[in-house]
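Reply to dn_fold:

You asked what the input looked like. This is it:
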Amino acid sequence: MNQLDEQSFHEAFKGTFYGVLRWPQLDALWETLRQDAASDWYLYAIGTEPPTATVGAGQLHAFISEIDVLLRKEHEEDYCGIVYTDSFEQPTFVKIFDPHNLGVSCGYSDNPPLPGWILSKLPPIDLKAPFLPGNRRRWWQRLFA
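and this is what came back:
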């Protein structure tokens, strides 16, 4: 990956995002992503090697189905609030936070937590997370086995 690609990803990662506050909003975002599944999407589990290739529509659909189950099961709230997108109408970048690694949930932090997963149209760079917890690594590996 060249420096321009890395800079583009970093700028997009630090750009403006909109919170998916309600579960019906998440349903709508998933549907938009499913309809755009033929486009090139990178799936990145933070703490693993960044992908160098995009996924096919089948893998994207499988990921959306699995992550939706995980979020609804493990984020025991009546609101979502842990998924962020750069656009609801034409998303190109989605950050999904792990319900068990939220850090400071409101306010400001000098070291905000990294998302658990990223869906991006740009090739991801290594965000230097220390590791992917064992249970999440097994989940990720099972998903793409």
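The CA atoms of residues 49 and 109 lie 26 Å apart.
Hope that clears it up.
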